[in-house]
UniProtKB/TrEMBL annotation:
Pathway: Cofactor biosynthesis; coenzyme A biosynthesis; CoA from (R)-pantothenate: step 1/5
Cofactor requirement: K(+); NH4(+)
Cofactor note: A monovalent cation. Ammonium or potassium.
Family affiliation: Belongs to the type III pantothenate kinase family.
CC annotations in GO: cytoplasm
Amino-acid positions noted as binding K(+) in the UniProt annotation, renumbered to this chain: D129
Sequence positions that bind ATP: D6, V7, G8, N9, T10, N11, M12, T13, T132
HAMAP family assigned: Pantothen_kinase_3
Organism taxonomic ancestry: Bacteria, Bacillati, Bacillota, Clostridia, Lachnospirales
Stored CDD domains: ASKHA_NBD_PanK-III
Protein name in UniProt: Type III pantothenate kinase
Active site: D109
Role according to the record: Catalyzes the phosphorylation of pantothenate (Pan), the first step in CoA biosynthesis.
Subcellular localization: Cytoplasm
């Protein structure tokens, strides 16, 4: 079994794989400062609750966009699971060739999603990840990371509304009964949800138009991705396990090097 960890700006998602099968998944908050011992105790307890012995893990892998947590998290895995984690970054074999102007600027999370989408669904494929930011990444039929678009995520937009205004409240992110809102909360929900749906559809349309890839598959993931994918025909597949599957695939590609 291996432990895979996706460290995002808001949440940290963990998964345990036996071969290609996900035996368990967990989520933790990223923004809470923790020592290596705190990480170690929490992770081992989460595993124990699923009857998984941390010391029986044969390996681990991390993709992170939050550098500040890496020292404590890596130390925790070494000390509490006796595995030295593979860190997704330059020098790690992915099977994806980055052909953008600055390949090193591609986030580890985006690369992991690209690997999973290409391996699972083939190319050309457009990968959408609805996280803290909403990202759109184009992978060609040859497995080339050709382009990426980054937009504010739904939650960031929501927080901007209530933090930067005097009277607008913090709201639950969900689709209202109608876009014809008649009070403040549903008005904000309508703007956020239908605005995101409209943005998603337009960006997908423009990517297909400018790339000339009419056969482009569109795959979405991320915590809020299902809400959006349920509301538009522009998204072909919603895959909640895409990122964790990508980490497993990258670990397997680098197994011989370890």
């Amino acid at each position: 079994m291996i432990l895979v960890i996706d460290v995002g700006n808001t949440n940290m998602t963990l998964g345990v794989y036996a071969g290609e099968t996900a035996e368990a998944t967990f989520r933790m908050m990223t923004k809470t400062p923790r020592t290596s011992d705190e990480y170690g105790v929490i992770i081992t307890q989460l595993l124990k609750n699923r009857d998984i012995d941390a010391l029986k893990l044969e390996g681990s892998i991390i993709a992170s966009v939050v550098p500040d947590v890496m020292h404590s998290l890596t130390s925790a895995l070494i000390r509490y699971t006796k595995t030295k984690p593979l860190i997704v970054g330059p020098g790690v074999k992915t099977g994806i060739k980055v052909v953008t102007e600055d390949p090193r600027a591609i986030g580890a999370d985006r690369m992991v999603d690209a690997v999973a989408a290409y391996e699972k669904y083939g190319g050309p494929v457009l990968v959408l990840d609805f996280g803290t930011a909403t990202t759109y990444d184009l992978i060609t039929e040859k497995g080339e990371f050709a382009a990426g678009i980054t937009a504010p995520g739904i939650r960031i937009s929501s927080e901007a509304l209530w933090k930067e205004t005097a009277k607008l409240p913090n709201i639950e992110i969900k689709k209202p009964k109608s876009i014809l809102a008649q009070e403040t909360i549903s008005s904000m929900q309508a703007g956020l949800m239908y605005g995101q749906i409209g943005q998603t559809e337009y960006i997908i349309k423009k990517v297909k138009e400018e790339s000339g890839l009419d056969n482009l598959k569109v795959v979405a993931t991320g915590g809020l991705g299902r809400i959006i994918s349920d509301e538009t025909d522009a998204i072909d597949i919603y895959d909640s396990a895409l990122t964790l599957d990508g980490l497993r695939i990258i670990y397997e590609k680098n197994r011989t090097k370890r």
